[in-house]
Amino acid sequence: MYSSSFLRVIRNELPIHFVLKQLNEMAPFSKFIEGFLRFQCPLCNQFRATINPKNNLAHCFCCQKNINNIDLMIELGYDFKNAVRILENLLHLYKK
């Protein structure tokens, strides 16, 4: 199983914008607006999810939910184990 410290790393240190870029067509629509990366919220489907680069957490200003990397992957249809495995691979890619 995965340690809580490892889960914290893929949640907090792997930039969401990098994950979105690597997911290509699987990722929700996103674009930079006013200096922030915004994307279509996978929970409510509104284009109101905005990433805070200070804490690597997205917040949807429509449904008021916070979204981290693991949440994003699960909402895109991956189960927890596959989501973490994919994020682990992306973390290795990001660190290169």
What does this structure look like?
- This protein has 96 residues and is an alpha+beta fold.
- The protein has a single domain, classed as Zinc finger, CHC2-typedomain (DNA Primase, Chain A), CATH 3.90.580.10.
- The protein has helices at residues 4-12, 16-23, 69-75, 80-95; strands at 30-33, 36-39, 49-52, 57-60, 66-67.
- Strands 1-2-3-4-5 form a five-stranded antiparallel sheet.
- Strand 4 and strand 5 (66-67) form a beta hairpin.
- Helix 3 crosses helix 4 (80-95).
List descriptors.
96 residues; alpha+beta; DNA Primase, Chain A; five-stranded antiparallel β-sheet; 4 helices; 5 strands; 42% helix; 19% strand
Query: CATH class, please?
Result: Alpha Beta
Counting DSSP E segments of at least 2 residues, the number of strands comes to: 5
Mean pLDDT across all residues, rounded? Answer: 96
Report strand %: 15-25%
Sheet with most strands: 5 strands, antiparallel
The global form is globular
The CATH architecture designation is Alpha-Beta Complex
Instruction: List the domain count as a whole number.
Output: 1
Q: Looking across the biggest beta sheet, what order are the strands in?
A: 1-2-3-4-5
State the helicity in percent bands: 40-55%
Low-confidence stretches: none
Helical segment count: 4
Question: Whole-Å distance between the termini?
Answer: 25 Å
The CATH topology: DNA Primase, Chain A
The radius of gyration is 13 Å
H/E element order: HHEEEEEHH
Class by helix and strand content?
alpha+beta
CATH superfamily: Zinc finger, CHC2-typedomain
